[in-house]
Amino acid sequence: MANIGRLSTKDAVIFLCDMQEKFRPNIFQFTNIVSNAARLLQASRVLGIPPILTEQYPKGLGPTVPELGAADLKAHAKTSFTMMIEEVEKELQALGNPKQAILCGIEAHACIACTTFDLLEKGMEVHIVADAVSSRSQTDRLFALSRLKQSGAYLTTTEAVLLQLVQDAKHPNFKEIQKLLAHPSPDTGLLAFFSAL
């Protein structure tokens, strides 16, 4: 059967890429991107999906922003543009090599792109949460999303991920996830992307 990209809580991991203080003033829609990523992290805790957090050169770019809600996570420091550094590879092995990656953070055309390529080469299914991913330039962001789709990544949204993971209003955690859906995701400038397709 063709791979249709159906998400499952049993075989997924959430990647939180480089949402750090120094990026705050420069990243397009930074506040809304982090807000959506924070909802995904909250959902991952409710549903038992392990999170992996990285920071790009934290000495220069600062720590992960507090509003992500990731203070309890170990941040893997890196200088490479991919999140797939040795420590992250080891963490994935310890998790039993999950087959699906839910990817959010910055920047779309740099660290998100390099991570996506590495994950796809490993044979993982990659779900890029378009409204939880950005770059300094909207042009770079939109072309990166288009490019990564060409490479075989799935483009999705915060709300779509949350609903796909529970799949049924009878799910034992549905009420908790429903609270995260109380307010629709803010517009992060993606409509222009679709009008250009």
TrEMBL record:
<dbReference type="Pfam" id="PF00857">
    <property type="entry name" value="Isochorismatase"/>
</dbReference>
<protein>
    <submittedName>
        <fullName>Isochorismatase domain containing 2</fullName>
    </submittedName>
</protein>
<comment type="similarity">
    <text>Belongs to the isochorismatase family.</text>
</comment>
<dbReference type="InterPro" id="IPR036380">
    <property type="entry name" value="Isochorismatase-like_sf"/>
</dbReference>
<dbReference type="InterPro" id="IPR000868">
    <property type="entry name" value="Isochorismatase-like_dom"/>
</dbReference>
<feature type="domain" description="Isochorismatase-like">
    <location>
        <begin position="13"/>
        <end position="159"/>
    </location>
</feature>
<dbReference type="InterPro" id="IPR050993">
    <property type="entry name" value="Isochorismatase_domain"/>
</dbReference>
